[in-house]
TrEMBL record:
Chief location of this protein within or outside the cell: cytoplasm
GO biological process terms on file: cell division; cell wall organization; peptidoglycan biosynthetic process; regulation of cell shape; UDP-N-acetylgalactosamine biosynthetic process
Pfam family, one: EPSP_synthase
Protein name: UDP-N-acetylglucosamine 1-carboxyvinyltransferase
Length: 443
């Protein structure tokens, strides 16, 4: 993978100018990478469309190629063709070069067990927004009959001496990744699998749709139970990825924070309803069209809100950070209770340095206590506004926090230097070009 020159990893931003214009959002980062892994289940060709040019796609392509899979990426067209007719065991040292680059490699476990009889998973990366353990993933794999060997220093070695077989699995928390793990590992298992306490995010439902196209038997009940009847084999798929509702909401928040007006082509209402309700409560306006959604600040005061992040259909944790920047411009006290990750408010410190008034609390400031109650995590934030923001030197901490810092720099008066912006390439396609198209003063 290309290394990043630190000199070129800085964005100079002069804020204080409303963002205005039109940008296009393509497929969801948190679906596309999983659909690419699913292609590994079938000894055939799969075609995924509406794929954004983001670093996670590059990481998964590299990992697939290391396993002998042919991957052809047409970035402009947004088409990825994956030919998994032949698969081979990757060299552990090669796989290891990808360690720390993403959380997706753990999802290779099931597909590799079917195709190769064993899997080596490198140490995982992803945003540092909490401890992010993988205990649910490993418990699930063990219940399905896998043997997990964590002795290996650089990663995990997984085998299934007697093959994978259906099982009854319950997730203590509706984890997105562990639900996807179960789907990808159980579709070809012998017999039936019942997964209770599953996550049902739209990105997961799109993965279920892909697996159904491939020949899988999966049903989803209203009570978060997913039933999978193992089948003997799967075939390749052709599928168009659902749009990235996190990226869409990020641009919507940018419009609100900068007093702007942004048409997000590709954004779709159904999976964004919870966000749209909150956006409207704050005082933002939107207009839903067939091909996208226009978001704008109508003038006047923005209103404070109290929100809690949650699993679907709740308010997404990934929507929280960009919106907090807009809340620094609302008149009064807003409260955000983060219930998905224990440590997702680190990004607020630079905002405070820029002039925001944000206080973090260990208590659950929400309607119900969450998993982090009585524990030592600052997982509630109180934001008092409106506060003018001043430009600053900011180091990007993680993907969503980093995009929020960009929004803050664009909202602030005076120049900012946002360092480490290549982290944002993990999930925001062409964000520099999009900012220019929206009239941002960046260099
Ligand atoms: N958890 C465990 N054990 C596990 C797995 C999860 O305790 O084995 C905990 C996590 O620590 C966390 C909670 O369960 O507190 C939820 O984690 P989940 O497994 O749902 O998250 P994930 O699959 O690791 C995906 C997205 C995240 C998004 C979350 C929640 C991808 C690649 N990542 O992560 O996206 O925040 O679901 O919707 O799909 C992002 O895009 O910036 C991002 C972080």
């Amino acid at each position: 993978m290309a290394t990043v020159d630190p000199q070129n990893d800085v964005l100079h931003v002069v804020g204080g100018k409303p963002l205005g214009g039109s940008i296009h959002v393509r497929g969801a980062k948190n679906f596309v990478s999983k659909a690419m892994v699913a292609a590994l289940l079938a000894p055939g060709v799969s075609v995924l469309k509406n794929v954004p040019e983001i670093r996670d796609v590059q990481v998964v392509s590299d990992l697939l190629r290391l396993h002998g899979v042919k991957v052809n990426v047409q970035p402009k067209e947004g088409v990825v063709t994956i030919d998994a007719s032949t698969v081979e065991l990757a060299d552990v040292a090669d796989v290891d070069t990808l360690s720390g680059s993403s959380r997706i490699p753990i999802l290779f476990s099931g597909p590799l067990l079917y195709r190769m009889g064993e899997a080596f998973i490198p140490a995982l990366g992803g945003c540092r927004i909490g401890s992010r353990p993988i205990d649910f993933h490993l418990d699930t794999l063990r219940k399905l009959g896998a043997k997990v060997d964590k002795e290996h220093e650089a990663g995990i070695h997984i085998t299934a001496p007697n093959g994978l077989h259906g099982a009854k699995i319950h997730l203590p928390y509706p984890s997105v990744g562990a639900t996807e793990q179960t789907l990808l590992a159980a579709v070809l298992a012998e017999g039936k699998t019942e997964l209770s306490g599953a996550a049902t995010e739209p990105e997961i439902m799109d993965l279920v749709a892909v697996l159904q196209k491939m020949g899988a038997q999966i049903s989803v009940d209203v009570d978060r139970t997913i039933r999978i009847e193992g089948v003997k084999k799967l075939k390749g798929y052709t599928h168009t990825a659902l749009p990235d509702r996190i990226e869409a909401a990020s641009w919507a928040s940018a419009a609100l924070a900068t007093h702007g007006d942004i048409y997000v082509e590709g954004a779709q209402q159904p999976d964004m309803m919870t966000f749209l309700n909150v956006f409207r409560k704050i005082g933002g306006e939107f207009d839903i069209r067939d091909e996208g959604i226009r978001f704008w600040h109508p003038g006047g005061d923005l209103h404070p809100v109290a929100i809690e992040t949650d699993v679907h259909p709740g308010f997404m944790t990934d929507w929280q950070q960009p919106l907090v920047v807009a809340l620094t411009q609302a008149k009064g006290l807003s409260i955000v209770h983060e219930t998905v990750y224990e440590n997702r408010f680190g990004f607020t410190r630079p905002l405070v340095q820029m002039g925001a008034t944000i206080q973090l609390y260990r208590e659950c400031l929400g309607s119900l206590p969450c998993r982090f109650q009585q524990r030592n995590f600052e997982h509630s934030a109180v934001i008092f506004g409106p506060t003018p923001l001043q430009g600053q030197i900011i180091d990007v901490p993680d993907l969503r926090g980093g995009f929020s810092h960009l929004i803050a720099a664009l909202t602030a008066t005076g120049p900012s230097e946002v360092r480490g912006i290549s982290l944002i390439d993990r999930g925001y396609e062409d964000f520099r070009e999009k900012l220019v198209a929206l009239g941002a003063n960046i260099d």
